[in-house]
Task: structure prediction
Amino acid sequence: MSLKSLLPLEAASPAYICPFDQACSYLEAAAKELRLDQGLVEILSHPRKVVTVSVPVKLDNGEVRIFAGHRVQHADVLGPYKGGIRYHPAVTLREVSALAMLMTWKCALLGIPYGGAKGGIAIDPKCYSVGELERISRRYISELIKDIGPSVDIPAPDMGTSAREMAWMMDTYSVNVGHAVPGIVTGKPLSIGGSRGREMATGRGVMIIIREALADQGRSLVGTRVVIQGFGNVGSAAAELLHQAGAKIIAVSTGAGGVFSQDGLDIPALKAYAAGNRKSVVGFPQAVSISNADLLTLPCDVLIPAALENQITGENVNQVQAQLIAEAANGPVTLEANQLLAARGVTVLPDILANAGGVVVSYLEWVQGLSYLFWDEERVNREMENLMVRAYRQVVQQSKLRQVPLRLAAYTLGVGRVAQALTDRGLYP
Ligand code: NAD
Result:
């Protein structure tokens, strides 16, 4: 039975772009380029395990509500499953399955010994109290207790979750098994074995990959005009580091809308403003308002979608003016838009490369935890930068060698390494 028949079709609208179908299309393109055996492709296009659990939680008003919590484990050919947990109203099983698959290729591309997984609950965290979020997180992880473990599957933060949720999950797992298990999650607070540099890691990785791509075009970050959609963990860290490196961040948005300044936004002031404004940039006094739709089509050098999937689509791609797009979010450019951008010669730095800084530092956190030896931030950043730059160089080299765009080059490396490992391990029994 194929996965497509197992996963419920979540939206019937003709405009619906299924993230899992898109992920499978990229896999198939890489498999074709690599001339992979069809049996291998079949294995890799199916997650090994798909779990949906009921998460019953008592809300503050005494009402009991049942949430659906997902965890999808795509492939553990190279090592334990690894992937974030997302709290967002748009979470679906198909989305989580697509993101789990991306994690497999991302880890393989970066050369880190993990497989791919992802988890999520379809909630808007802004609608729940801290106490409710704690109960949701604890019950969700306790329902998954037999499916995860520090050498089995290691969750991390993603949209809507942070070090706080990781600490609750680590505590819940530890209480259930009877001893402290810091290695059950990454992206946790420093006080319980988190790594220095983890919070900024994904944004730092985005900055590094953009810097390298500009350098290859004989340009630098200084004075480069940048637009960023999303000002959460990833978008705000990328904005801060790019700003420090001399780039001009001319527009930034959050879910409710964005802000624009022709002369460049004062990013430290904007961060402080958002922190006191329920994480929204709307109303920032030193800028004018801009909608999320208009933000994507602003004239700029670099566009960084750092929020959701499917933001640059067949509908708006012709209005996008940036010549360089760095996918800080997972899957922000649809398959159709990707092809149209390639035809126009726009460089797209693909998600599995551009946003890999987070999983790299998660890996470094895991390594530090296993060795009971914790590094200073400079060392963490250095080790991360080495892995990111190495992967970038390999992708560029592969792109030249095979005469394919960077995304297909990245996929051929990631998919190819997993396929090779699968071939070497063989199919049991
Ligand atoms: P986050 O929850 O911290 O921030 C998300 C941001 O996007 C917020 O500013 C939110 O207001 C904004 N947003 C939400 N809906 C929007 C919309 N419709 N239009 C514009 N902005 C909108 O999430 P995050 O951790 O920064 O993750 C962002 C993206 O990066 C996701 O695709 C995630 O999978 C990816 N990613 C995150 C990490 C990580 O370490 N956190 C690692 C790799 C990839």
Remarks:
- The longest strand covers residues 64-75.
- Residues 157-160, 202, 229-235, 253-255, 292, 306-308, 328-330, 355, 358 surround nicotinamide-adenine-dinucleotide (CB under 6 Å).
- The chain has a mean pLDDT of 95.
